[in-house]
Specification:
This protein is α/β, with parallel strands linked by helices. It folds into two domains: 1-40 and 212-259, no CATH class; 57-209 and 262-473, 3-Layer(aba) Sandwich (Alkaline Phosphatase, subunit A). The protein has helices at 21-25, 81-84, 104-108, 126-135, 151-160, 215-233, 243-259, 261-267, 274-280, 284-298, 327-351, 433-443, and strands at residues 7-9, 57-62, 89-91, 98-100, 113-119, 172-175, 194-196, 302-306, 358-363, 367-368, 373-376, 390-393, 396-397, 401-407, 414-416, 418-419, 426-428, 451-454, 460-462.
Length: 475
């Protein structure tokens, strides 16, 4: 198989000839059915292996802007009022672990996940902080685009080395995925997600370019593909690197995604009963995470979903500076949808027997400042007072924050690490972005300590250059 970047496994010394998306374009890929699917998607296939050897999958639930750890998973009820916030705490199903009152549903199923309370990274800006979490980039400067590929693209790339399979679904799908500060970098666009945009809760929601049912349209596309292949035969004598063979494979898989009715079924939420849809919440976030469960159950291996938009409040994210939001009103505003959707996803993973194969990770790029700040609002809207009104906020805080882990065969019903009495710094079991990434790679069966991929300059670059899997979060 020909791929867009060589990668190296120190133990196996695997290297492959690069064939970039740009080289595919020279042969007219962009014209195929007027879609950008070929060369943009590396499509995966369902494994013929027995159930006990199914491929592992990860669902990343991303909270862009950074969620306040103190007001959710790491409350500090004994701190001074300028730190602790207004929310009371509630017991969870795990002895000794308390959440704030905003998360009653998650508290009731806390035995089904583990909370890491001791995450720390070094970058205080959204771009650099996100790049640390997505790719392990240790640079604390904010950059307009990533220097390193994110773990999702890396996993997609490494898994693609297995060659063609039969499942028409993409290996990597984003349902309203993170769209800033992440990407495939030097791997190329072929390893980006098949992105689903829009509101899955809307009555008229559809995913375009999948599962055509009009047989006449399918036949028309088949004729166009055959014509293009006949023209390609004229160039095969000059195809020194076998790029056209790779192109054939990618186009064939893209055509399958377009014409196979089973692909449409996987994205079709109307096939879920009303009770299940209600359980997740009849809103954008609930239906996003329900679609995520459907897709991993159908064979997608990497799934990302970003909880952003109007459900967050006025500025459509979790960036709860006082100038953006009244932080506590914003947390109340989004809490019900967030608590319900995440709880339903985790419960569903266990009830449907996916908990050994599917790892769910819920996080953002950092926490929020333990000490509450006050600034004038810059505009009225959901969770924000009128412009000029002084209101409370919390700012960026990478020194300590929490994330949630469920499924993946891990031991659940506990919390890892601790922060100081004001939630400012980690005082036990500090974990960094390298540990975070190594843990995800471990679940996917990727030994991050032994895999390197060539960068733009041809230098073998480790996918994780520091950190190791967190022992409590691996099975």
């Amino acid at each position: 198989m020909t791929d867009s970047k060589p990668y190296f496994d120190r133990s196996a010394a695997i290297r492959q000839r690069p064939a970039t998306r740009r080289s595919f374009m020279r042969f007219g890929v962009a014209g195929f059915t007027s879609l950008s699917l070929p060369g943009v998607l590396r499509l995966r296939a369902d494994s013929p292996l027995p159930e006990s050897k199914r491929r592992k999958a990860v669902i990343l639930v991303w909270k862009p802007g950074g969620c306040s750890h103190i007001d959710t998973y790491d409350p500090k009820p004994d701190a001074l009022s300028e730190y602790r916030g207004p929310f009371g705490t509630i017991a969870t199903k795990v002895n000794g672990m308390r959440f704030t009152e905003l998360l009653p549903r998650q508290a009731a199923i806390a035995d089904k996940f583990t909370v890491l309370r001791s995450m720390r990274q070094a970058a205080g800006g959204h771009p650099a902080g996100s790049m640390q979490m997505f790719s392990g980039d240790s640079d604390t400067r904010d950059k307009p685009k990533p220097r390193l590929p994110d773990w999702m693209s890396v996993a997609n790339y490494i898994r693609s080395q297995d060659g063609p399979r039969t499942n028409p679904l993409p290996r990597y799908v984003g349902v309203n995925p993170p769209t800033t500060y992440n990407g495939p970098a030097y791997l190329g666009d072929a390893y980006s997600p098949f992105a689903v945009a829009g509101d899955p809760a809307a009555p008229n929601f559809t995913v375009p370019n999948i599962g055509l049912t009009d047989h006449r349209e399918v036949e028309r596309i088949d004729r166009r593909v055959k014509l293009r292949k006949n023209l390609d035969n004229l160039q095969r004598a000059f195809d020194v690197y076998g790029e056209l063979d790779a192109l054939d494979q990618f186009e064939s898989q893209a055509l399958t995604l377009l014409t196979n009715p089973k692909t449409k079924e996987a994205f079709d939420l109307s096939r879920e009963d009303d009770r299940t849809r209600d359980r997740y919440g009849r809103n954008t976030w609930g239906q996003q995470l329900l679609m995520a469960r459907r897709l991993v159950e159908a064979g997608v291996e990497v799934l990302t979903s970003s909880l952003r938009g109007p459900l967050c409040g006025r500025v459509n994210n979790w960036d709860d500076h006082a100038v953006n939001h009244h932080v506590f009103d914003a947390l109340r505003f989004r809490a019900e949808a967030y608590d319900q959707a995440v709880t339903a996803l985790i419960e569903d993973i266990y009830e449907r027997g996916l908990d050994q194969d599917v790892l769910v990770v819920v996080t953002g790029e950092f926490g929020r400042t333990p000490k509450i700040s006050y600034q004038p609002s810059t505009g009225a809207g959901n969770a924000s007072a009128a412009a000029g009104t002084k209101q409370p906020g919390r700012d960026h805080w990478p020194r300590a924050f929490s994330n949630l882990w469920a499924g993946g065969g891990i031991e659940t019903g506990r919390f890892i690490g601790a922060t100081d009495p004001r939630g400012e710094d980690v005082i036990n079991r500090q974990c960094g972005p390298g540990d975070f990434l190594a843990t995800i790679y471990h679940h996917l069966g990727i030994d991050s300590s032994n895999v390197l991929i060539e960068d733009f300059n041809g230098r073998p670059t480790p996918i994780v250059d520091h950190g190791r899997p967190i022992p409590e979060l691996i099975s």
